[in-house]
Design a protein that fits this description.
This protein is mainly alpha-helical. It is built from eleven helices and no strands.
């Protein structure tokens, strides 16, 4: 099943689900229950990752929520993508970027909201890191978050962002250099800068 396969390995293809559900037809490739399990297992993690990318918790929540709506509409593509969480994350990023572009034209699309009482807020160190990341150009910030927060390899980042491996490495290097002056203590390990995951 989709959900069991997702829980077993969230970055692996849903081959088991595809085999079991192949005879159900296009509209039943992934059941509502399976998709709900996927949503429940990954929503908060994805919001945290998009928060690091965008610097706005409210914007991250809205972008991830909309990305999941699109994921349900394209669930057959999601099932066969091989990396469903990466599909949702990339979609949420595109949604956030689109909103930035519209906001620059004068539309105020996002409003800040207080954190939910039942969910702990970010730690002071995380707040400092998010504030520092806001000073870094968007694509460099995205690469840094994918590498250091989402634990993606350079090759995986290249696939998710649609750019060559060399571009990813350049964005990581420039992003680290741009980030350094804003952090009193190094939030991104120096070792990672010299030994990128392939």
């Amino acid at each position: 099943m989709f959900a069991r396969t997702y829980r077993r390995a969230r970055t692996q293809p849903f081959t088991h689900a595809g085999t079991q559900l192949a005879g159900k037809g296009a509209t039943n490739a992934v059941s509502p229950e399976e998709f709900t399990d996927f949503y429940a297992a990954s929503f908060r993690r994805l919001v945290g990752q998009l928060y690091a990318m965008t610097g706005s918790h409210a914007e991250a929540q809205d972008a991830v929520q909309e990305a999941f709506i699109r994921a349900w509409a394209h669930r057959r593509q999601l099932e066969h993508s091989g990396a469903p969480e990466a599909w949702v994350r990339a979609t949420a990023w595109r949604i956030a970027v689109s909103r930035w572009q519209r906001a620059r034209l004068g539309r105020v699309l996002m409003r800040s909201s207080p954190p939910t009482a039942t969910i702990d807020g970010p730690s002071p160190d995380r707040v400092a890191l998010i504030e520092a990341l806001r000073q870094v150009p968007a694509e460099q910030r995205r690469a840094l978050v994918l590498y250091h927060v989402c634990d993606q390899s350079v090759a995986q980042i290249a696939a998710e962002t649609g750019v060559p491996v060399g571009t990813v490495k350049a964005r990581l290097a420039r992003g680290r250099a741009a980030l350094a002056p804003y952090l009193r203590e190094t939030a991104i390990p120096d070792g990672a800068a010299s030994a990128d995951r392939k």
